[in-house]
Each structure stands twice: as structure tokens, then as C-alpha cells.
């Protein structure tokens, strides 16, 4: 069955529209919603100085990227939004991504905005909490992986730290292709 958007549908889709954005990736290039249109993407919220969930989340996202490649899935992007833009410069994000040997041709680590901007963007687009308490190093943030269709509409989210449903995510990506 096809949805009104012309792509395969996900049962019980969230249908949260991602608001327009243009941020800076790990290579210092501008990447925005328009660059992702026509591609299915999986996103999350992380930061490089995180001492808890961001390392396993990034490792899990890397596993998803590898699985998608092994399945021959093309036209897929992975997008990690930094929730600590003051510390997460493009260079810091590149160094962080290098630790996981990510394929940057299909993965953007984004920064280049104010703290308040990412907090509002996460809430408005993803219905996700991002909050940096005053005088704290760690940022409070959601730990989900979000599946976004080719039109920039969030279809579903999944656990991103433990118990990641890899096969389900891969199947859902294929449905949206």
C-alpha cells in the first residue's frame, strides 16, 4: 500500500514533520533538510563529551550503517545532531566519528547552532527533550533513533542504547525505500 506521499507506509506512523534546517557537518559543509529530501534517514541526538549513552548510541548507529550497506540499501543517510554545539565543532565531531570508522558519505554529524536552537528544534521536530543544565558538562537528551521518510517526515522511533531492534529498523527502511 502506498501513502499519499508515494512512498511505502509504516503502520502507525508518527508523521512528525521535521522543520527546515541548515546546519554544519563534520567537514564544515552546510547540510539541510533539502539535502536529505528524497532519502530515507535515521537520526539521533549525541555529543562528543558524553560520559554515558552517546558512545553506545554511536556504536549502534554504526552497526545500522554497516547492516544497511550489507543489505544493499542505497539512498540512506544517518544524521547525528550534536546537543552540545559550543564544544562540538566540526573538527570535534569528525574526530568523534573517526573513532567509529563511520562512512561519512552516508552520515552527517551536525552542529553550528545555538544551544537554545537545538533544544527547540529537537522538541518541535522530534518531540524530543534536549536540555543543558546551567553549570553542567553533561546534556540531557533523548536516546532514540528516529526514522525519517523521503519527504522529511518522522515515521517511527526506536530504542538507541540497549535492545536496539536492528532487523526491524532495516525492514522499516526498506519499506520506505
Description:
The protein has 177 residues and is of the alpha+beta class. It has five helices and ten strands; from the N terminus they run βββαβαβαβαββββα. The strands form three sheets. The chain has a six-stranded mixed beta sheet, sandwiched between helices. Strands 2-3 form a two-stranded antiparallel ribbon. A two-stranded antiparallel ribbon has the order 7-8. Strand 2 and strand 3 form a beta hairpin. The two termini are 13 Å apart. The relative contact order is 0.24. The N terminus is likely disordered.
Secondary structure layout:
Elements lengths: L15 E2 L4 E3 L5 E3 H4 L3 E7 L7 H17 L5 E7 L7 H10 L7 E4 L4 H12 L3 E2 L8 E2 L2 E5 L4 E7 L6 H11 L1
Parallel strand pairs: 4-5, 5-6
Antiparallel strand pairs: 1-10, 2-3, 4-9, 7-8, 9-10
Task: Please give a handful of descriptors for the protein shown.
6-stranded mixed sheet; alpha+beta; disordered N terminus; 177 residues; globular; two-stranded antiparallel sheet; 5 helices; 31% helix
Brief digest:
The protein is of the alpha+beta class. It has 5 helices and 10 strands; from the N terminus they run E-E-E-H-E-H-E-H-E-H-E-E-E-E-H. The radius of gyration is 15 Å and the shape is globular.
Residue stretches low in confidence (pLDDT < 50, at least 5 long) are 1-7
Could you give the order of the helices and strands?
EEEHEHEHEHEEEEH
Instruction: Describe the sheet with the most strands.
Output: 6 strands, mixed
What shape does the CA trace take? globular
How many strands?
10
Q: Structural class, please?
A: alpha+beta
Task: Note the beta-strand portion.
Answer: 15-25%
- The residue fraction in helices comes out at 25-40%
Oligomer: single chain
For the terminal residues, how far apart are their CA atoms? 13 Å
Number of separate helices: 5
- Strand line-up in the sheet with most strands: 1-10-9-4-5-6
Computed over alpha carbons, the radius of gyration is 15 Å
pLDDT average, as an integer?
Answer: 91
Amino acid at each position: 500500500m502506498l501513502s499519499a506521499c508515494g512512498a511505502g507506509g509504516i503502520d502507525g506512523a508518527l508523521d512528525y514533520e521535521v522543520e527546515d534546517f541548515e546546519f554544519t557537518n563534520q567537514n564544515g559543509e552546510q547540510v539541510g533538510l533539502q539535502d536529505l529530501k528524497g532519502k530515507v534517514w535515521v537520526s539521533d541526538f549525541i555529543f562528543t563529551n558524553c560520559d554515558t549513552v552517546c558512545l553506545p548510541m554511536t556504536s549502534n548507529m554504526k552497526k545500522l550503517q554497516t547492516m544497511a550497506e550489507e543489505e544493499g540499501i542505497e539512498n540512506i543517510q544517518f544524521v547525528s545532531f550534536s546537543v552540545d554545539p559550543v564544544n562540538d565543532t566540526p573538527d570535534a565531531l569528525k574526530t568523534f566519528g573517526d573513532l567509529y570508522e563511520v562512512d561519512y558519505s552516508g552520515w552527517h554529524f551536525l552542529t553550528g547552532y545555538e544551544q537554545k536552537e537545538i533544544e527547540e528544534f529537537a522538541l518541535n521536530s522530534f518531540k524530543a527533550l534536549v536540555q543543558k543544565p546551567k553549570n553542567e558538562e553533561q546534556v540531557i537528551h533523548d536516546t532514540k533513533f528516529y526514522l525519517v521518510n523521503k519527504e522529511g517526515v518522522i515515521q517511527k522511533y526506536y530504542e538507541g542504547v540497549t535492545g536496539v531492534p536492528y532487523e526491524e529498523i532495516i525492514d522499516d527502511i526498506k519499506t520506505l525505500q
